[in-house]
C-alpha cells in the first residue's frame, strides 16, 4: 500500500487536503510534525507521496516548501489541490463566546481573523501554536475558558463546538497544496508545469526568457523571484505555466530556456486542479 505523508496533527488543513487526495485510492496516511521532515520523508523513500502547502491567497508563498524542492531534494510535483480556508472559533461543548479568556491558533490564522478578534474578543489573550489543529488539541485538554481558531474539520476531529463560522477577513481565502513524489507524472492533456531558472544580470534577460513562452502561445499562470541562496542580489524565477514538459511546443521552449539559463530545473508537470477534476 502506498504511503502519503501530511503535516500533522490530524485536523490541520494539510490533513484535510491529504484526505481529499487519497479518497478512493486505498493509500495509507502518515503524519509528520514539520514540513522539512515531510519533504525529506518522500525524498528518502519513507513515504511514496507528500501533501504540502505551496501558497496561500492571502499570505503568499510557503517559503520552506518552495526553497526545499528547488535546492535540497530530488522530488517532483505530481499533483495539486486548492482548499478553501474558512476559520471557525472553536471551544469545548457548551462554552459561550463571552466565557473565553484565551484564544489559540497558528500565527497566520490569528492574523487572518484580526478584525473578528478585535471586534468580538477585544482584550482576550492570543497565543500562537504550531498549527490550527495543535490549538484545537490544546483546547481539549486546557481550561474551559480557552478557545481555538481552526477549521470545521478540526472541530470534528477533536469534538469541539463551533461558536462562530467564517471569521476570516478575506473572502476567497484558499491554500494551494502540491503532491510531491520521486517519480514524474505522465501527460493527461490538461497539465501544468513548474520550473525554476536564473538569468544573467543584463538588460532584457528576463524579457527574452519569458518571450520564449509568449511566442509559442504558452500561458504563464504564476511568476515570482526567489533568492538563489548564494549571495545577496542573486535570484532565480519560479514559473508555472499550462502544458506538460513532454508536449512538443513546451519541450522546445524549455530546451531553449535551459541553454540560456545559469540555473534551470523542472520541478514537475502534473494535472491542473479544477473543482470538477479535483
The portion of residues assigned to helices is 25-40%
What would you call the shape?
elongated
How many distinct domains? 3
Fourth-level CATH superfamily of the largest domain = Periplasmic binding protein-like II
Helical stretch tally? 9
Q: Average pLDDT value? A: 93
Distance between the termini: 22 Å
Main sheet overview: 6 strands, mixed
Instruction: Quickly give the structural class.
Output: alpha/beta
CATH class designation of the largest domain? Alpha Beta
Note the beta-strand portion: 25-35%
Element pattern in H and E: EHEHEEHEEEHHEHEHEEEHEEHE
Question: How does this structure look, described?
Answer:
The protein folds into three domains: 3-84 and 173-181, 3-Layer(aba) Sandwich (D-Maltodextrin-Binding Protein, domain 2); 88-164, Periplasmic binding protein-like II (D-Maltodextrin-Binding Protein, domain 2), CATH 3.40.190.10; 191-271, ACT domain (Alpha-Beta Plaits), CATH 3.30.70. 29% of the residues lie in helices and 33% in strands. The protein has nine helices and 15 strands. The chain has helices spanning 13-22, 35-43, 63-71, 107-112, 114-120, 132-141, 152-158, 205-214, 248-259, and strands spanning 3-7, 28-32, 49-56, 60-61, 76-84, 88-91, 102-105, 125-128, 146-150, 161-164, 174-181, 191-198, 220-227, 235-242, 263-271. A hairpin with a 3-residue loop joins β3 (49-56) and β4. The chain starts with a strand and ends in a 7-residue tail after the last strand. 39% of the residues are buried.
Amino acid at each position: 500500500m502506498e504511503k502519503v505523508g501530511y503535516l500533522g496533527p490530524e485536523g490541520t488543513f494539510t490533513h484535510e487536503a491529504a484526505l481529499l487526495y487519497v479518497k478512493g485510492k486505498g493509500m495509507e496516511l502518515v503524519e509528520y510534525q514539520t514540513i522539512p521532515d515531510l519533504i525529506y520523508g518522500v525524498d528518502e523513500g519513507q513515504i511514496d507521496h507528500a501533501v504540502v502547502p505551496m501558497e496561500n491567497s492571502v499570505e503568499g508563498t510557503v517559503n520552506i516548501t518552495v526553497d526545499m524542492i528547488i535546492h535540497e531534494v530530488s522530488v517532483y510535483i505530481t499533483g495539486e489541490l486548492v482548499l478553501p480556508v474558512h476559520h471557525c472559533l472553536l471551544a469545548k461543548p457548551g462554552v459561550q463566546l463571552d466565557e473565553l479568556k484565551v484564544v489559540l491558533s497558528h500565527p497566520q490564522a490569528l492574523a487572518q481573523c484580526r478584525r473578528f478578534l478585535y471586534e468580538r474578543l477585544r482584550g482576550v489573550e492570543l497565543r500562537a501554536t504550531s498549527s490550527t489543529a495543535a490549538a484545537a488539541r490544546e483546547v481539549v485538554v486546557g481550561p474551559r475558558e480557552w478557545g481555538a481558531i481552526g477549521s470545521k474539520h478540526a472541530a470534528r476531529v477533536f469534538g469541539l463546538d463551533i461558536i462562530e463560522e467564517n471569521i476570516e477577513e478575506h473572502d476567497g481565502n484558499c491554500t494551494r497544496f502540491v503532491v510531491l513524489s520521486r517519480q514524474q507524472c505522465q501527460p493527461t492533456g490538461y497539465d501544468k508545469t513548474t520550473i525554476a531558472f536564473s538569468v544573467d544580470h543584463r538588460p532584457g534577460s528576463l524579457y527574452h526568457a519569458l518571450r520564449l513562452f509568449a511566442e509559442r502561445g504558452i500561458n504563464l499562470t504564476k511568476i515570482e523571484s526567489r533568492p538563489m541562496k548564494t549571495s545577496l542580489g542573486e535570484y532565480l524565477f519560479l514559473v508555472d505555466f499550462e502544458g506538460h514538459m513532454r508536449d512538443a511546443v513546451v519541450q522546445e521552449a524549455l530546451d531553449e530556456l535551459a541553454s540560456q539559463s545559469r540555473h534551470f530545473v523542472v520541478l514537475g508537470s502534473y494535472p491542473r486542479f479544477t473543482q470538477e477534476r479535483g
